[in-house]
Amino acid sequence: MRTTTRQRRRTALTTTVAALLATLPALPAATPASASTAFGKASVWLTNPSTGTYLSKQAPVTWKTGSASSGPSTITVDTTRKYQQMTGFGASFTDSSAWLVGTKLSTKQRNALMRDLFSRKDGIGLSFLRQPMGATDFTVNGNYSYDDMPAGESDPTLADFSIDHDRSYTIPLLKQARKLNPQLTVMATPWSPPGWMKTGDTMNGGQIRPAAYQQLADYFAKFLKAYKAAGVPVRYVTPQNEPLHDTSAYPSASLTADQAKTFINDHLAPTLRKQHLSTGILGYDHNWDVTSYPESLYTDTASAKNVAGTAWHCYAGEVSAQSVVHNDYPNKPAFQSECSGGSWEGTDAGATFAGTMDNIINGPRNWAKSIIRWNIALDGAGGPTNNGCQGCRPVVTVSRNADGTYAYKPTADYWGLAQASKFVQPGAHRVASNSFGKGDLEDVAFTNPDGSTALITYNSSTTKRTFTVRWGNRTFTYALAAGAAATFTWTGTQHGSTDPSAIGSVDIPFRNADGTQALISYDSGLLAQQPQVRVGHQWLGHTLPTGASFTPPTGESALSRDGWQATASASSSDDPPSKAIDGDASTRWSLGHGMQSGDWFQLDLGFTRTFDQLVLDSTASSGDFVRRYEVYTSDDGTTWGKPIATGPGSTVTRIQLPTTTARYIRVVNKADSGSWWSIHDVSVLAPDGKATSSASATKGVQRKSAALPDGTRLTAVYNPGPRTATFDVPWGGTTYSYRLPVGAAAIFTTRSA
């Protein structure tokens, strides 16, 4: 590869730095995608860890026109179908990261690294930073907030509030990043408020005292004003990092969805408005496996207005949860606010790069407007830590040399981010493309504000793959090694139509009262994320946004538990299955280990009974619900046959069933999670024959139908408001009543069993 200006700049660094970077090709000077392609060609930028190739510009590929048929390995891009607008790609200057970059690198090294990270011309153009408000599990000298007090004392007027801790090395880096990339977005999140605002008077664990909610809201306002005055305006905040994770090891706090609504609606949002702060509030800021938390913020009229979107983490559940919540509440955007790579992914270059590319591609494919990794920098031992993550991988490693000097080296996260952040500008729209999924060719495509297109591809299979890219009536062919990524950029306007079946999904647009569009996009992969029941030779499915209800035409009565017995595949010694059927919601059955596919819980009703609903209540063990279930029934407890229902779990998993007669019911978990599966109460319901009262159907809901390439038929119903809607739904030979909150959408599917 020829010597570039970037290489010459790096060789001017210390000999140690040059030696560390000698094995890595220098980052080529970037040019806008609109200027990097000749007519009829697409530029190619390649990373292949197995050959030591990193963001290397390759020979361009030439478009061909004509009627060549699409083969089995064809990636079709349709730039006429647009989705979310991207905010950016980035990471976090945790206290540890900022300390390493700001105090351990020489000025020359630091400036070079900052250019590498944030410059669109000379670097990879990172455009999003998620900044901690105080200490996290990655700090240099333990816990700190912006208003620390001695144990037993408080500061209700925030007289001692100060951001001075951040002025020494964090804020200067944030200002430098903003100067290098003026399009940089900053969001902020507390891992914990000051300890005196919490139960236990400590930043480590516990809850925020309701009496301190207003003080915490004022704390946010002071922080936002102080950061703005220091030259770092903050665009978004979240009330609490990982509100369902409460640990005594490092700063954290429990904040339930109901508590979050109270804090946001009665304190934080009014305070920001009163202080004339336009910073948006994002909800949740935790993992994919609990969708009911962010959705519950949208069921309430006040919090729906006050919450601008959902922040997601990647450590539990599946990324498709972002699409589920988007389709349930299509006006509320998704932001992926934290996803760290680490030793759990493996240690070789290919494995670490695979985890990053999975995040880069599948986050946006599931509606994320941002992709934010975790620490920008850590040392060679993965620290300094504050009793937190062991083995987390940074974007760059800042290591101490034998002579006491420091040097930095990019990791897989850097090069993975580069494949997107260098070519996808803030304001770009994701556009339609098909993807073959994990273990095959994966991709995501964008159109930039300047009209250029970027297609990011990654070969997650174990063999070299040759594929065709189709864009309208143009195609090119490319071969990509196993474990390699290539970003293609081109200019121009799409000519020729696209066969919708080539993309594999359908888009269903609805109208909002203000003239904007609420867009739902659906593919067959989402079927597993919704409740389905098998009726004859068909699977009938429906989505159920939090706040919605799906009610049978007659009332329901709980079957008597007399004579019931419960068993399970495994149990905690303190929580046997019998505690799930003892009628006491304060006791529970608990699995005793993290959920694994195949775990099961079983009921023996004593004799054959008729029923049509099963309810698993895990409310008292927040987050410990079955992740994805299948329901089986049996007359003898031995022969189970095929499942009669499947779907995702929730805090209260209410499973509608076809009218069924059986003695035994088995619920099988079908997804892994670190959480234990717990059930505090089980109910089996049967129709009582009494007609339920029903309100007249609400006018104003919008309905549209579509079909997937695999033959699945779907009908989507959207409620643009201004009030909750009710309507009838034909369901398995009868008619149910559906209640749909404002701003929510419901999808009903039919497919062959």
- How many β-strand stretches? 44
Secondary structure tally, helices? 14
Q: How far is the N terminus from the C terminus?
A: 56 Å
Summarize the biggest pleated sheet: 12 strands, antiparallel
Query: Which range best describes the helical content: under 10%, 10-25%, 25-40%, 40-55%, 55-70% or over 70%?
Result: 10-25%
Average pLDDT score: 92
How much of the sequence lies in strands comes to: 35-45%
Shape: globular
Q: How would you describe this structure to a colleague?
A:
- This protein has 753 residues and is of the alpha+beta class.
- It contains 14 helices and 44 strands.
- Strands 28, 29, 31, 32, 34, 35, 36, 37, 39, 40, 41 and 44 form a twelve-stranded antiparallel beta sheet that branches. Strands 2-1-25-22-21-20-4-23-24-3 form a ten-stranded mixed beta sheet. Strands 5-6-7-9-11-12-13-15 form an eight-stranded parallel barrel, surrounded by five helices.
- Helix 4 (107-118) packs across helix 6 (170-180), helix 7 (213-229) crosses helix 8 (257-274) and helix 8 packs across helix 9.
- The protein is globular and about 80 Å long.
- It starts with a helix and ends with a strand.
- 51% of the residues are buried.
Structure summarized in a few sentences:
The protein is α+β, with helices and mostly antiparallel strands and 753 residues long.
